[in-house]
Amino acid sequence: MAFHRLTNGMKLVIESKLRVLACFVWGITGIACSADAGNASLKAPSDEQIQNFWYDGAEISRFELKQERYGEARPGYAVFVFVTEPFRTTTQVKADTLEPNTTSILKLNAMREFNTGIYEYNTMTSIFAPIDTDAFPHALKLTTTIQDWCGHAFSQFNLEDEGYRSELRSYFESHGDINETILGTDVWLEDELWTRIRIDPTELPVGKFKVIPGSLHLRFAHLRPEAALAEGVIEQNGKLTTYTVVYPALGRSLSIDFDASFPHVIRGWTESGGRNGTKTIAKLVDRIERSYYWSLNKPGDSKLRKQLGLLEDPR
Length: 315
Prior knowledge:
Blueprint: H1 17-29, H2 47-54, E1 58-69, E2 72-88, E3 93-94, E4 102-116, E5 119-130, E6 141-148, E7 151-159, E8 163-170, E9 177-183, E10 188-189, H3 192-199, E11 207-212, H4 215-220, E12 228-237, E13 240-247, E14 252-259, E15 266-273, E16 280-291
Parallel strand pairs: 10-11
Antiparallel strand pairs: 1-2, 1-16, 2-3, 2-4, 4-5, 5-6, 6-7, 7-8, 8-9, 11-12, 12-13, 13-14, 14-15, 15-16
């Protein structure tokens, strides 16, 4: 199985928190940020590591969540499910059979649940990212749904020859039915950065790059999807690595903490700034490394939820 290693122009950096702050200043004053140092702590995983870890069940993690909504922090939780699947590249759906035009993907189902007063929010984002990033440098598909007592919204991104084709369906009149294409084959999805960390963090974009902000952020802020200029920074702190994406023009940042060593377990993240001042703080509290959860659907299997702290409402 072949895996792509981006080496030309892809430099990892060790920077201080002042370095991240400088990126915000860049957006205000025009001062440029650039990646100019190497980081030997991160290593590309071997094919054997990928095969042995990611092709033996799913990884399930639960995070304590503080999700800002309507100007106040709301306690809740997030569940991440990472799992590999065969994926049909032509129709961009999970493949039922291993035929031509099929590739292995690392799928992330990222779910959040929190309350706002009397009513609750439930969200889910699914990222479909090929393991073979040589043949497929970017995620092929992304979907996000948001449900609350007012209604629900659905967005989808599909990678085509000219860029990402996006669809939006919402109960809001202004966002009810929107179809558009975001041009550019070099545009990243913010949501695919999570899977790239787990596949090979040495391929994370550093320095300036074009990226479509997180789909959940776009929906919470009621923004149309479009590529924005961002700055990627990697900071090493012992066994922990922090990858930060700063959007100078949007006044927004996302920092993801993960293990420097394979399989690069995600330990938490912080999102701040942007329209409506959205802020998210998440910390890993429970994790199951191997699970065939799709077959654990009997009533007695519910006891396994205790391993994830989900038997009782953690809020």
